[in-house]
Amino acid sequence: RAHLTSPGGYRFYVEEMNTRALRVLAYENRLRKAILRKEFIPFFQPLIDVKTGEIAAMEALVRWRHPRLGLVWPGEFIPVAEEAGLIGDICHQVLYETCMTAKRWMEAGYGAIPMAVNISWRQFAQPERLLQLMSDVLKETGTPPELIELELTESSVMEEPDSAIRTLNDLREFGVMASIDDFGTGYSSLSYLKRLPISKLKIDRAFINEVTHNERDAAIVDAIIRLAQALGLKTVAEGIETQEQFEFLKEKGCDLGQGFLFSRPVPAEDMEKILQEGGFSDFRVLQ
Ligand code: C2E
Ligand code: MG
Ligand code: MG
Ligand code: MG
Questions:
Q1: pTM: predicted TM-score of the whole model, two decimal places
Q2: Which residue, by CA, sits nearest to atom 33 of ligand 1?
Q3: Is the ipTM of this complex over 0.90?
Q4: EAL domain: from which residue to which, for each copy (predicted)?
């Protein structure tokens, strides 16, 4: 920034901007190639029924399987993909693989396991495209829409709540339900929250992290669970890492739990082994 005030600084600044723009452009091109090569795959993390310890659902979390770099995490490429308008293409691959996996597991006799897929605010802002994508992939794969649930952040939904209610109603009519992800970290209008046709609130990991050490976090988690109960919604606690956190949530009446205590997100084949072994009813800690 100091360069801005020095002689010739303006030029330096422009060049720096160009370098950055070129870097972003190069990254976007790599993403485009990766889309063509179908390098985006879902990993799966189970949602556990807190009362029974059984697997109640799965969340699909995208990974970029790069031929040279190995696995690339969504935190790195999702923002670039959103900016470049490529998030829909990536979602298509994740949704397709998730549907095929759900079908395979159903045919293998593991039952109809509900699958949650994350949807970017960018996609939710274009409801026609989102609905088209959903209906295309469900038809293509022959998946019952009831098996797929969408995860949306508070801000995706609360940005334009009236339009969000319409979109969620359209999706519901179609057979697809939605949950609010990372609840408590964005802003929610309670008057809209009560009108949203959703099925679950997912309590953000930030509150679960210290829930057994921090009274305020404990109070917030307790309040979210009771709010959800009053609104007829199920609660999911994200990021459960310890037995103590799990016991706390169980005592407070949280419905579902997700976190490293049960399993990290793993490839479909690894999750299939867990299903073969009968899931988590013995609360076995993996990895
Ligand atoms: P999210 O949907 O809130 O997913 C939960 C994140 O927490 C995942 O990170 C998961 O690996 C991590 N996690 C789960 N349990 C624990 C735990 O016990 N401890 C800790 N420390 N972390 C835990 P991940 O896979 O890196 O995904 C990050 C975010 O990227 C997701 O947050 C979601 O917002 C986004 N994302 C993932 N897949 C997709 C996708 O297919 N499409 C879109 N648009 N976004 C996605
Ligand atoms: Mg999620
Ligand atoms: Mg979350
Ligand atoms: Mg998150």
A1: 0.92
A2: 118
A3: yes
A4: 24-279
